[in-house]
Design goal:
The complex is a heterodimer of chains A (about 120) and B (about 220). Chain A has about 120 residues and is mainly α. Chain A contains six helices and no strands. Classes of the chains: A mainly alpha (about 120), B alpha+beta (about 220). At the A-B interface, helix 1 and helix 3 of A face helix 3 of B.
């Protein structure tokens, strides 16, 4: 009986952990996508964009350990690559390509959240 | 390389802990469900061990869920006979009182060669030497020889469980050619008020009754 109780507790904790991980992922990705929307709006202003991109990068760095613990590392590598490309566009004052890169960055983050969503598509 | 080493050690500890937590059974004693779980645990443990792109948690969560689900399912199996039958199957007699049950052998996809092989492993040479042959839920064949002076059969013949864990076994009644009234009468004679109080009640070929009552130890 003791083992069954421990198993039920462990199973319960695993469910709680999974739900809280998804909820945190959701809130972090919402924050990141809103930051990216903001960056896209000010894509023409290079210095302002650089500031906002730095804030976005700091946010990614802040949640790095969470992402690497809970997500497939490939997703994080894609985001980091895209972020590096966006920085390079800013360096060369290429606001058009910068905006395109920001869009793909947003897509990577939304895709990462979608992959973790508990729905029939992801289950099967 | 260091990451692989540390991940491997962590997963090793988790897998060993999980297997120990599930119980002490040996591979040969595992039921089909338990064997599948053991293989799955080793498989899900190996994936994050080899690929450092996959978070360790993916493997850990899978192992925890498999181990806990197995313990919960086996606990339900212990309480419910029908659930146990569904999960682990039931022992099937392929030779009953010296008669080969061909339909059961076909159901089990068991050939006559398989049967002979098992008989030879029990140091018997003829099918007619076998009184009972039962394929157990772990796939092993239990044989009871015909000769009363040889091996298992006692002078009272074979015993059949007719009450198991507080429940009357229809199969046991059928084999022993008894009915529920007989069980109730024998329980009353032994001052047992309810079938629920009985852990095991068996009857042998000479109608000797053995009763073991439920206890908490």
């Amino acid at each position: 009986m003791k083992r069954v109780i421990i198993s039920l507790v462990l199973l319960g904790l695993t469910v709680i952990f999974s739900v809280s991980t998804y909820s945190r992922l959701n809130s972090v990705s919402e924050k990141l996508t809103s930051q990216l929307d903001d960056i896209k709006k000010s894509a023409d202003d290079i210095s302002l964009s650089a500031q906002k991109l730095q804030a976005f990068s700091d946010e990614i760095e802040k949640n790095k350990s969470f992402f690497y613990t809970a997500m497939h590392h490939e997703n994080m590598d894609d985001i980091k690559d895209s972020l590096a490309r966006a920085r390079a566009r800013l360096e060369y004052n290429d606001s058009e390509d910068f905006a395109v890169e920001i869009s793909s960055l947003k897509n990577y983050i939304e895709h990462m959240t979608e992959l973790e969503k508990t729905d029939l598509t992801n289950i099967f | 390389m260091g990451i692989v080493l540390i991940r491997t050690l962590i997963l090793y500890v988790i897998v060993i802990f999980g297997m120990r937590f599930m119980g002490k059974r040996q591979i040969g004693e595992l039921s089909p469900a338990e064997l599948v779980i053991a293989i799955m645990i080793s498989e899900v443990g190996a994936v994050p061990m080899q690929s450092i792109d996959i978070p360790l948690l993916y493997g850990v969560i899978s192992i925890i869920v498999l181990v806990t689900a197995e313990i919960i399912v086996s606990s339900i199996s212990l309480k419910s006979g029908s659930f146990r039958g569904f999960m682990n199957g039931r022992p099937v007699a392929v030779i009953e009182r010296g008669k080969i049950l061909q339909s059961q052998m076909r159901k089990l996809r068991m050939s006559i060669d398989d049967l002979y092989e098992e008989i030879r492993q029990k140091d018997l040479s003829h099918l007619c030497d076998v009184y009972f042959a039962i394929v157990e839920t772990n796939g092993k064949l239990s044989l009871m020889p015909n000769d009363p002076n040889n091996l298992s059969p006692s002078s009272n013949g074979y015993e059949y469980p007719i009450v198991k864990d507080g429940r009357i076994s229809e199969k046991g009644l059928q084999i022993s050619k008894k009915n529920i009234e007989f069980v109730k009468q024998k329980l009353a004679e032994n001052k047992v008020s309810s079938v629920r109080d009985v852990f095991l009640m068996s009857i042998d070929d000479k109608d000797n009754i053995y009763i073991i009552l439920k206890s908490d130890d």
